[in-house]
Amino acid sequence: MLEAIDLVKHFPVRGSDALVHALNGVSLSLAAGETLGIVGESGCGKSTLAKVLVRLEDPTSGRVVLDGVDLTELRGRRLRAHRRHIQMVFQDPYSSLDPRQSVGAALDEVLTVHGIGSSDADRTRRVAELLDLVGLSPAFAQRLPHEMSGGQRQRVGIARALAPEPRVLLLDEPVSALDVSVRAEVMNLLVHLRSELQLAYLFISHDVAMVRQISDRVAVMYFGRVVEQGGWKSVLSVHGGDPLHPYTAGLRGAVPVPDPTVAQPLAATVVGEVPNPVAPPSGCPFHPRCPLAEDVCRTALPPLEEIRDEHLAACHVAARSLTGSR
Ligand code: SF4
Questions:
Q1: For a pocket test of ligand 1, which of 220, 317, 323 has the largest count of ligand atoms closer than 8 A to its C-beta?
Q2: Which of 226, 287, 295 to mutate to test the pocket of ligand 1 (most atoms within 8 A of CB)?
Q3: Residue 90: inside a domain
Q4: Residue 153: which domain range?
Q5: 152 and 175 share a domain?
Q6: CA nearest 58: which of 39, 74, 41?
Q7: Closest approach atom of ligand 1 to CA 292
Q8: pLDDT digits (tens, 9 = 90+) for 96-142
Q9: Contact 140 CB / ligand 1 (< 6 Å)
Q10: What are the coiled-coil residue ranges (predicted)?
Q11: Are 190 and 37 in contact (CB under 8 A)?
Q12: Of 165, 183, 216, at which residue does a domain stop?
């Protein structure tokens, strides 16, 4: 249904010829009703990817295809008509809402922009339905953002994303800014809405445990690239999972496992810093931090390729050890 094809996004650095390499060729796909988790450290390009997918940012190159239509070629009304099918939920519900606008007015505005509802009364009824969908009473339509808790604000953020009746939600760290006690409630709401409305999710997070909880498949991003992709059980599960890329193994190993039958720590964690995005390392961008790096890793970029059934990785060593082909 949704496809990203070789997306590149470079931002110019003001006052110089340098470029920030935010996305360096990301390809992935999302099927109807599926949840694809995107995981990686801060600065790996996850949020830029989401913004390019909804065309809040134009890609430097590459394509975003929804149901066979290339969104990167659309402008104006035609773009808006297609974009209603992909909506975004932001990390910080407070800054994504207008502090002077009531919840009802914010939702009504989205409905109006997308031509949903034939009258004021129709839209008022729809606003109440949206609030009910996210577990809020109709009285919340009168509230201003500062009159709600963080969890309530994020529920409003989700209602606003649902207002245009999308088929895909891009959830960019949707629970990271919430208190721990509220996170589970919002995660449960997202799971409920997914089956109730048959939505597809791109769930973006630095939190391996959250991605593991909600995803069907997982894409691990590092330095603006997907370095591993597969079913969540193969990539992130602590019971039988077997990540192929040393970066994924480090991310997975850094998460405590709430299970006394699983030995801890699981694996080495990732050490060192993400490289400077203005000066990408040669070869595999992970080589300055990789415990398995070899000479070839410093000169040749490993392609993302299928190493096991529907389990892809971009790593010279993983490819050689599993296929014996190099
Ligand atoms: Fe490490 Fe080399 Fe694999 Fe990159 S290609 S992850 S440096 S072993």
A1: 317
A2: 287
A3: no
A4: 95-165
A5: no
A6: 74
A7: 8
A8: 788 899 999 999 999 998 889 889 999 999 999 999 999 999 999 99
A9: no
A10: none
A11: no
A12: 165
